[in-house]
Each structure stands twice: as C-alpha cells, then as structure tokens.
Amino acid sequence: MTSGQSSGRTTQSALPAPPHDPFFRAVTAPAFTHELLAGLAAGRYAAVRVPSFLPRERCDEVLGALRQQVFDSYGKARVDPPVMRFGVGVSDHMADGGVADTYWKALQGHHESWQGLGLSFDPFRTCREALAVAWPGGVAVGRRGGVEMGDGVAREPNQGFQVHFDDALREYEGDLLDEPLIGQFAFNLYLSVPPEGGETVLWRHRWQPEDEAHRLSARYGFDESVVAGAESIELAPEVGEALLIDPRFFHAVRPSHGDRRIALGFAVGIGTSGRLLTWA
Q1: What angle do CA 270, 166, 155 make, to 5 degrees?
Q2: What kind and span of H or E run contains 267?
Q3: Beta 232-235 vs 153-156: how paired, if at all?
Q4: Where are the domains of the chain?
Q5: Chain-wide mean pLDDT for the chain?
Q6: pLDDT tens digits, residue range 227-249?
C-alpha cells in the first residue's frame, strides 16, 4: 500500500466537550454572605452550599423529635411518587390561582404540632437569623392579607421528587405575598441523608411554553425528557448542610436508598423593599 492509499479505517478526533455556562455552577462556602446571596439572585450561581450550617447535635435533636411523629403526605393525586411531610405547605392549598381558606386552618395545627416537639430552639427561626446576618435588608416570614404564612416544613422525599420548577410568579395569579417579589430561592437544611441516592439535580433549563407537552397528566412535575440535553448539576446532601438554589431552574430529587432523607425547607423571596421573605 502506498502512502496515497487508504487502509479502510477512519480516525475520528475526540468529540468536543459540550458547551458549559460558567454561571451555572454550585459554590460551597463556610457561611452565607451578602456576596453569595446577591450572586445567586443575579444568576452568577445556580446554588450555594454551606456545610455544617447547623451543628450535628442540633440536627440530631430535631431529627429525634421528628422520628417520633407521623408524617402526612402531599396530595397523592397531585404528587406521585408520594412525598412525606411534617408541617403544612401552601402548595397543597392552591385554589383558582390563589390560596384556599383551608391553608390558614391547617396552619393552626401546624404551629401546635411544631411546638409540641418540645425543641430547645426554633429551627426555622435559627435558619432565618443566619440568612439575616448575610442580608442587610433583613429576613422575615412573608404575609398574605396581613397574616404570616407558614415558616417551614420537614420533607421526606424517599422515593424522589419529580422534575419540576418553583416560581410564585407563574404559580399564583397576582402576588402571593403582600409585598411583591422580584426573585426567589429555595432553602433546604438536611437532618438525615441516605448512604446512597437522595441527590438534588438541577438543569440549566427554565420553563418555556413548549414544556407543557412534557407535563405529567393531572400530576405534579414533568417527564424528565423535558430537560433532555440540558447541562446539569448533581448535589449529594450532607447532614447539617444548608442549600440555597434558584428553583426556577428545573430540578428533581433522586430516590433514596438505605435511610430516610429528611430536610427542613422553605421558600425565600426577595421583596421589593429589599427584605428576604420566607414562606412554606
């Protein structure tokens, strides 16, 4: 064979790496700071992680009390696979683009249940106070019609969370809170994590009208095909870690194996006054 002949084989160069958005990333820090929260709001980050946000002994105190309680589930006709919770979430009380009266009645029992745990501290207040240190505008529980919303909920998605996004602007007609929001985060604090699974996955994809073709019929969330080809980040939880994400990115939780995955959570909005406002 001369140098001008082909051997019948072709040599393929390595495929180019898929494009990466340098702002679609998770950062880890010893504490939340104003720079990190502002960066999350501005879109410089997709998530901010703070390991050991709550000391292990305090996590164990809350977890020990919760393990003695019976968890409810989000509406089974809407959320499948089922996600267990202790406390009240406003998403179970949506009605005609607003909030049903049943939410306020349920909140009364919510406060009684959490007070009945006999904890030496208020874990949701502790989380808000830590965020307030990093945010000059302060942090408060949001109000609707002058009444405080729920301050948080314990969630146990052992079978995972379907792909979904959270955006009060799109989920409610008008403003959910008395003070209009110009941004939104989701906060989680992990009390118990499984040895395998339970990861939070974020995709660099926000809702578009054509996504509705992938929505699960009469259920919460979307088929994972909605994020096919999108860049993603996978975050394995750690006990005591706090995680803030931009929930307008589509995200999901993988099923857990070997132990319960229990986290405290609430939504965080940036109000027009500059305050951070929480609700659940």
Answers
A1: 100
A2: strand 262-271
A3: unpaired
A4: 26-279
A5: 93
A6: 999 999 999 999 999 999 999 99
